[in-house]
Amino acid sequence: MSEEVEMRGRTSISDEVISIIARKAADKVEGVHQIADPNLSGMIRRLGRHAGVASEVGSDEAAIDVSIVVNYGMPIREVAAALRGEIIQAVETMTGMKVVEVNVDVHDVHVPKIEQRSRRQLE
Fold first, then answer.
1. Are the CB atoms for 112 and 65 separated by under 8 Å?
2. Taking the domains of the chain in order of start, what are their residue ranges?
3. The CATH number of the domain covering residues in 2-122
4. pLDDT tens per residue, the chain (123 residues)?
5. Are strands 61-71 and 2-6 parallel, antiparallel or unpaired?
6. ∠ CA(25), CA(87), CA(65), 5° rounding?
7. Rounded to two decimals, what is the model's pTM?
8. What is the C-alpha to C-alpha distance for residues 20 and 26, in angstroms, rounded to an integer?
9. Distance between CA 33 and CA 69 in Å, rounded?
10. Looking at residue 59, what DSSP letter applies?
């Protein structure tokens, strides 16, 4: 948790806040189908945890890990780079903290159901 002592008090920014900002930033990136976490069940996701995003927050720096599903046909490295940039911009703008790293794990590729059926027919 980040704490900044100000003139008449302190401001704390939790890891959870950084994770929320990162998830919202991912919504803006073309090619990101969804945030994914292979280690958490659907039940845990429904409880409100921010699956697929982990962050470590120091006094004025943050490091973020994000796991995503990319849309089929999108250039994966370009999607990851765009996501990294969007997260850095959002977190730094909203919190004033320096983002030292954003690690992107591409967990899966989303193939639309229509394409899945067509692919099965070709086999």
1. no
2. 2-122
3. 3.30.70.1350
4. 666 666 788 888 999 999 999 999 999 999 999 998 655 545 444 444 457 899 999 989 999 999 999 999 999 999 999 999 999 999 999 999 999 999 999 999 999 887 555 555 555
5. unpaired
6. 110
7. 0.79
8. 10
9. 5
10. S
